[in-house]
Every structure is written in C-alpha cells, then in structure tokens.
Write a structure and sequence with these properties.
9 helices, binds D-[(amino)carbonyl]phenylalanine, Nitrilase/N-carbamoyl-D-aminoacid amidohydrolase, 6-stranded mixed sheet, 14 strands
C-alpha cells in the first residue's frame, strides 16, 4: 500500500522591512488555503518566513533586533496559521527567528517547526551551518547570520509524521553533505528546507552566475544519495534591494526535480510524493548496511584543511 503525502512548496516573494506580521501571515494563509484546495497534506514555507532577511544589515539596537524574533511559537501573530491548519486539516513547516531564555540567558536561533494537521508542533530544528560573518566584512553586501544566531543545538532529528519520517534543514545546511547523511542514517523519507539565498554578496561573479545551479546541485545530490524526498522553498525576488534566488523545487529520491516554481513571488507548487519511492534505493544502491564502509575510510579530516595547499 503506497504511502502518499501531497506536499505544497509555498515560495514567498520579498518581505519588506516594515511589512508587519499580520500582512505576512495573511500571505501564508492564502497559500495554505491554496494548498488545501489542491488536496495537500502539508505546506512548506521558507526560512525566516515572517520577516525580511535582516542579517543583510548591521543592527545594533537590541529592541529593533528583537523585533525580528518570536519569543513563543505560536506567537499571537502566528496563531491564525495554527488555527487555520487545524480547521483545514493540513500540516505545515515554518521557518522563523527564535528567542528563548535557556540556561538563564537569552539565546537566538534560526529555527523551523513541523506542525501536524491538528495544529500541534511535532518537531523543531535549529540551523547548524551558519554562513557569513559576525562582524562587517569588506564585501559588496553583508551577511551577518553568525552575529544574530547561535549554532543549532538540536542536531538533525527525524520525526514521525504524515505517515513517514520527516526531517528539516535550513538554507546553508543544504550545501553540506553531512546534513542529509545525518538524517539519511535515520532513514529519513522527506527533508524540508527553507532558504533565503542572496546573490552579489561577494566578489566571485561566477558564484552568482552559478547560484541556481549550485542550489539544485546540492538538493538533488542530497536527495539521491540518501534516498529521500527534498522539498526546498525560497523566499526570493528583490527584497530591500537584495536579489535572492527562487526556483523552489520538490526533488524525488531519484534526484529528479518533479516540480519547480517559475516566478520570484508568492507561488505554490504541488506534488503527490510516494514515500516508498526511496525504498528501492535504500534497499539496494544506497543500502548503507550492505555497501557503506565508514570503518575503512581511514582518517576523515574532521576540521577544514588549509584553504591553500601548504608549500
Ligand atoms: N543563505 C545563503 C545560502 O547558503 C550564502 C548563504 C549566500 C551562501 C550566498 C553562499 C552564497 O544559501 C543562508 N541564509 O544560509
């Protein structure tokens, strides 16, 4: 008996710096209802879905910085999304900025939550691979995520939900093979990844030209090599003068892109995903127990080697 999950990727266009949560949540609700009209079981939203991508700026006023974070989930502004999910009987994944008081101190994370069809949170993930810098750098644009978020402390958990095994990652995580493999060895069947990916933030023009290629390259490789579905959802377009890539997509365990957006705005794409599609790969080509030999890999360099080979 096939286990189908009908998934909607709800790509978002730009969110302005002064766009308040109620307007943003209204956009998310509109796409949730569209997803339900398509008969979807779950709708996946981008990273930092509730606000503009503020790590592009140096923000030194703590009150202003705090305004981009949620101190509870659901927060009052986001509660309508949970209520509508319960009313419609559809789950969702949401990326947002989290402030918690843990260990007697204020901690900030780039977070995503997985919510079931009853509007209950069944899983949380905190971004581990934090790109950019903590101080201003001498580049065409800033990317200050290391300044505004701690490294995630929840690992890469895999949750039972929607009839399968669901994992999450956030943006830069998708560029690192360990992200997928940590969930692959937990037999993950679908990984949901939101992203905000600007171009033009460094001097390597080829990075910009290849940004969309690199986006799909890592998603397709991660999906195939770990026999899992990947649902990758952008916030994109020209957001506060920052150009961010779109091409949100749904990738099958074969590595094939089965659905992709074609705009840089709010756009819902849908695919009926067979969670058993990964089994032929898990049982044969990528049967870790049969073919994978980490014990024979020899010394795996655990830290980055020298960027330029020593003379
Ligand atoms: N964004 C980017 C990403 O990994 C980045 C960071 C930008 C990397 C440009 C390389 C080039 O897609 C986030 N939010 O991680």
């Amino acid at each position: 008996m096939a286990r189908f999950v009908k998934v909607a990727a709800a790509q978002m266009g730009p969110v302005a710096r002064d766009e308040d949560r109620t307007c943003v949540v209204a956009r998310l609700l509109k796409m949730m209802r569209e997803a339900k009209d398509w008969g979807c079981d779950i709708v996946v939203y981008p990273e930092l879905a509730l606000t503009t991508f503020f790590p592009r700026w140096l923000i030194e006023d703590e009150a202003e910085l705090d305004s981009y974070y949620e101190t509870e989930m659901p927060s009052p502004d986001v509660q309508p999304l949970f209520d509508e999910a319960r009313k419609l009987g559809i789950g969702f994944q949401l990326g947002y900025c989290e402030i918690v008081n843990e260990g007697g101190r204020k901690r900030r994370f780039n977070t995503s939550v997985l919510v079931d069809k009853n509007g209950e949170i069944i899983g949380k993930y905190r971004k581990i691979h934090m790109p950019g810098n903590s101080e201003l750098w001498d580049k065409p644009a800033q990317h200050l995520e290391k300044r505004y978020f701690e490294i995630g402390d929840l690992g890469f958990p895999v949750f039972e939900g929607f009839g399968g095994r669901i994992g999450m990652a956030i943006c830069n995580d998708r560029r690192w093979p360990e992200t997928y493999r940590c969930m692959g060895i937990q037999s993950v069947e679908m990984i949901m990844i939101g992203y905000n990916t600007p171009v033009g933030i460094d001097y390597n023009f080829d990075h910009d030209v290849l940004a969309s290629f690199h986006n799909h390259l890592v998603l397709q490789a991660g999906a195939h090599q770990n026999a899992t579905w990947v649902v990758a959802v952008a916030k994109c377009g020209i957001e506060e003068s920052s150009k961010m890539i779109g091409q949100s997509c749904i990738v099958a365990p074969s590595g094939e892109i089965v659905a992709m957006t074609s705009t840089l705005g709010d756009e819902v794409i849908v695919h009926k995903c067979d969670l058993d599609a990964g089994l032929p790969y898990k049982e044969d080509l990528f049967n870790f127990g049969l073919h994978r030999r980490p014990e024979h890999y020899g010394l795996i360099v655990e830290t980055a080697g020298p960027i330029t080979p020593q003379k």
